Amino acid sequence: MKISTVLTDIEGTTTDINFVHKVLFPYARAHLPAFVRANAETPAVADCLQQVKASLEEPNARLDRVIDQLLAWIDSDTKATPLKTLQGLIWVQGYEQGDFTGHLYPDAHAGLQRWSEQGLKLYVFSSGSVKAQQLLFGYSDFGDLTPLFSGYFDTNTGQKREAEAYHNIAQAIGVPAEEILFLSDIVPELDAAKAAGMQTCLLVRGEQPDNAAGHTQTDTFDSINPGSQP
Listing from the earlier edge strand, what are the strands of the sheet with 199-203? Predict the structure, then answer.
């Protein structure tokens, strides 16, 4: 079955992971306490704070306690959905103020442009919130690339190392899993996508990972041609 759709990860796949860990995360950490205190009553932030309290099993936790937990999650790189949502909201100001632009590998930019022109549908699946994804591509090094994409998925859809998430994505897109090519630099994510019936490709941006058998491998988008996938 021919590939009609490409689903891509961000960190380590389209984007240097150092941009996330050395630019975005420190920015969010520095601005999170003031942002949360200033916006605690707004619906989006209030909902995130309730989720943190539920995770702590402390429904009456004070705001400082919640902020401390959010900062601890940042420090431990915990992929908690309320944290990801808040980070996305904080990064809005950074992008809009021009404090940084969204890093994209040149080969990833060229590949996404090429596939879009070929008529392939492009989607994103990242542990970062949908808002954060849209910001990165909307304020990318190459300008606003959001018109290239048909949709975005985050951990609200499911965990990236569980096949159920990929089943959910295929169902949401309305495309058979066999027609979807998933790109990632993380083997367990590729394993989960493959278990859901998707075709897979490992992006090796650094060291060659272990246990990558069963997945197509490359170090550049230039060598990926979804239209010719069997």
Answer: 151-153, 121-125, 5-8, 180-184, 199-203, 216-218
